[in-house]
Amino acid sequence: MTDVTSSKSTRRPHHWRHDLIELAAMFTAVVVADTIAKTIAKGPDGRYLLVFSAIALVATAAFHTWWARRHGHTSHAPPAGHPGGRSRTGPSTHPADGSAGAPEATAGSGESTGTVLWRMRTTVADAPGSLAALCTALAGLRVDILTLQTHPLADGTVDEFLLRAPADLSARTLARETAEAGGRDTWTERADAHDLVDTPTRVLELATRTALDAAELPLALRRLLGRCTLHSVPAVSLTGRSTGEPVPVEGVLEETVMRLRDPHGGTLVVERPHLPFTPTEFARARALVELDARLGPRVPHGRDVLTLPEGNEITVRRADRRDLPAARAMHDRCSADTLAQRYHGPVGDADRYLDHLLSPRFGRTLAAQTASGRLVALGHLLWDGDETEVALLVEDDWQRRGVGAELLGRLVAMAEEAGCASVYAVTRASNTGMVAAMRALGLPLDYQIEEGTLVITARLTPKPSARPRREQRPEGARRAER
User: Fold this and answer.
1) Cα-based torsion angle of the residue sequence 392, 396, 398, 404 in order, rounded to the nearest 10 degrees
2) More confident: 154 or 468
3) Are 344 and 454 in contact (CB under 8 A)?
4) Which of 282, 285, 224, 230 is nearest to 254 (CA)?
5) CATH code reported for the domain at 306-480
6) Domain 115-196, what fold?
7) Which of 222, 311, 370, 434 has minimal Cβ neighbours within 10 Å of its Cβ?
8) Whole-prediction pTM value?
């Protein structure tokens, strides 16, 4: 079934009896008029009466024509459900992709003084008329449906809307009217202009970014699934112990948690406690992970050559696990105090962290190397659940020369571009170099000391193109997960 009706099916049927009756009425009117005219013409003022009668007839005909046109336009407006109408209220089925051709539900001639955007998700029965009833309820609230996605389930369909609603419409009222129209498990959240991008376009953009940079996969999954937390669990812990049973190739979906096999080893765990995942979302996430697996290791090839204040040149570029031998060689050249300030643990375990830090699953890494190609510094931007950590390691001979500040500034810029609300650094209070580099950012800073460890948090201003959806946790909570 479609909402399109052909002109042939809407044309009124033609009956010859109507024409015969109209013809008979016309002849009768002519005979009556002729009789009256002859009677009046024989009187003393017959000619004047005929003129006045003609004027009266013309005026009556003009009034009748105006009245018919005015009321004809009002009564013959397209009915609800017709392609020319504003809302679809007839029986309907769920479209395969509601991002295009979503119905627009409006009601009332008065426009609200202001509007806001809402994202709403509700579950309805997968039956003809269920979507129509919901659209009718939204129309009664003067709500416009901008986009619509459908997520089929075994016992119904999850409809996800982007709505433009009057500013005085509350989320409680919206949920109540939705429930009365047959919706259940309704969830609402305020949206912004960035949500106006339709789903196919957004998925293609995320796939493109993932194809260019392996470190984009965690961010792409977050942006695809909305406000969620993602953890990358390695197959083997830093102490050499197995982290659990491997995840099947097809992944596992458990309502608010999905587990996906990481092509680089381990498991990607995505959690969204406030809203269960649908099979459609699970399939999209698996498709992104499969794309990453097929493309293999990759990082952007751009590199910048910088001149330090003292005149030496260094090259800053992205790094990954292929730089592991050079990173271990740099470890060997670093002093025990430098490694202890960076890793906050036994110096002998420092090499174990490198494979983890250089993995694109846990974040992005910048490397600084000399003109001869020797690695002298590493900077890490790490996805820590729904927060972001920055960390630096600079070889002793290259400290206090601006290398660390240059890497930190670039890492913070990456975090802003990714939509991060803040970044934090964990160091010792005696690490004056790291403290000075954080202060040089010129950003609002928060300081917290936990068991002799200094945590410095910088508040960021996300780029307009980014769409952060993060829930802040207490500062101490993230430390407990380390």
Assistant:
1) 20
2) 154
3) no
4) 282
5) 3.40.630.30
6) Alpha-Beta Plaits (3.30.70)
7) 311
8) 0.62
